Amino acid sequence: GDADNSGRRNSALEALIGAGARVVSRVIADLATDDADVRKQLVDVVAGIGDPEGCGAMLYMLGDPDANVAAAAADALGVLGGEEAIRALTGVATDADAGQLLRASALRSLARLEVVVPGNDLASCVSDAVLRPAAFELMGYSEDERALDELFKGLELRAHSSKEAAVEALLRRVARAEPSEAMQVSARLEGAVQANAQVVDWAVESLPEAALKSRMRLIQFLGLSRHPSAVVPILLCASDAAVSDLAHATLVAFGALADRELDASWSDLTHAAQLEACRAMGSLAEPASASRLMLVLADPDSELRSAAAHALAERRHAQALPILLERLARVAVVGEDEEREAIAASIAAISAAPGHGETRLVDEVVAALAELLEGGCESLRFAVAEVLGGLSGRCDAALLGKLS
User: What pLDDT digit, counting tens, does each position of 244-262 carry?
Assistant: First the structure.
């Protein structure tokens, strides 16, 4: 109860929580104090301990005359759970006469407990700008059409918090739904975005400054939107290690759309973005990106050439072999070790890949390597040896003898 020393008060709260279930009965008894601040702290202790013994007291505290105490009790019931808690929280959340703070806490607790509340029951919450984000969050666990309709309407709202809550809830609906329903919701979302491109603009503008969790949701949302203007912004997120894998997976899921947009935007991308684009193109089985990677093999920047070589190897793009062999001969002579290693590994990977590693292709590559060996300098012979090492013994003894 020390109002003048917050550090001392918080340490006492942590100590009580650490004491666990054995102090719950004493904490509940002390809820009778007239000091609202102390009651609030004690409610937080009950929530922190999480012992079901405190549920009855928290149900009673929902009626506390102090709004902060009552809201804290609703939050605590979201931790304690149970049928009684769910009934009480649902009653509070849908009671238009209850205070906004209490109702918002009840909505958040119901969402934490993943309670399914019919969309019709939440109508008064959705109409309240303060409660709407929490109501949308809860609707993410609903299964009826009314809730889904409200979430799609939420995409058109101006308020950032409501729009973001609607996005999160729609993503949750897709994740929790059966495959057929998930496809329907995704198709409806794509259609809604095509009809209202402003929501894509909002998501794209929000990406750079969004917190990690929000950024991940926005990338997923833009992925479901399948809107062309989302491709490059998602690519730019890939430089962040925390979301890089998600960004690349989203681009790959775009398929032909990403293929076209990355190729068309290539000259406008920064060097770092072009490196990320090469990585993404390596996972795309589309023609435009294959052609782009072949062109990048002749780029003045060695780092980009190496990235393109790796990407073509991942695609098992046999048509790139003549250019890669030519590049190998050139970089081996000038001593570009890093690029030499990338190209050598790429040639070996493409040649030995399942489906492309038939005898004819290996023979052609080995024959080309043999030509490079004739009169080649030491660095070139070393480069050829790197390729042959990656072919796992799929070359003849005569060629190996030339290297010994």
Answer: 999 999 999 999 999 999 9
- CB contact burial 161-180 (16+ within 10 A = b; e otherwise): ebbbbbbbbbbbbbeeeeee
For helices 36-49 and 6-19, the axis angle rounded to 10 degrees is: 40
The amino acid at residue 233 is P
Distance CA 352, CA 237 (A): 34
φ, ψ for residue 81, nearest 5 deg = 70, -165
Token pair recorded at residue 68: 């902060």
Q: What is the DSSP letter of 196?
A: -
Q: Note the pLDDT of residue 87.
A: 97
292-350 per-position pLDDT tens digit: 999 999 999 999 999 999 999 899 898 998 898 888 888 887 777 888 888 888 888 88
Residues 234 and 218: their CA atoms lie apart, in Å, by 9
Distances (CA, A) of 89 to 127, 140, 147: 19, 17, 19
Q: Residue 35 in contact with residue 6, Cβ under 8 Å?
A: no
User: Is the pLDDT reported for residue 393 higher than 70?
Assistant: no
Question: Is 255 in contact with 286 (CB distance < 8 Å)?
Answer: yes
What is the secondary structure of 280-296 as a DSSP string?
A: HHTT---HHHHHHHHHH
Distances from the Cα of 13 to the Cα of 20, 248, 284, angstroms: 11, 44, 54
> What is the per-residue pLDDT for 376?
63
Tell me how crowded residue 15 is: count the other CB atoms within 10 A of its CB.
Answer: 11
Q: Distance between CA atoms of 279 and 309, rounded to whole angstroms?
A: 10
Per-residue burial over 124-155, b = 16 or more CB atoms within 10 Å of its CB, e = otherwise: ebbeeeebbbbbbbbbbbbeeebbbebbbebb
Mean pLDDT value across the chain: 90
Are 237 and 210 in contact by the 8 Å Cβ rule? The answer is no
| Token pair in block for residue 130 | 């303060």
Beta strands per DSSP E along 314-394:
none
End-to-end Cα separation, the chain, in angstroms: 84
How much is the average pLDDT of 188-213? 92
Mean pLDDT of 59-86: 97
Instruction: For tokens 């770092």, name the residue.
Output: 272
The span from the CA of 65 to the CA of 60, in Å, is 11
The one-letter amino acid code at 255 reads: G
- pLDDT reported for residue 365: 78
pTM score of the predicted model:
0.83
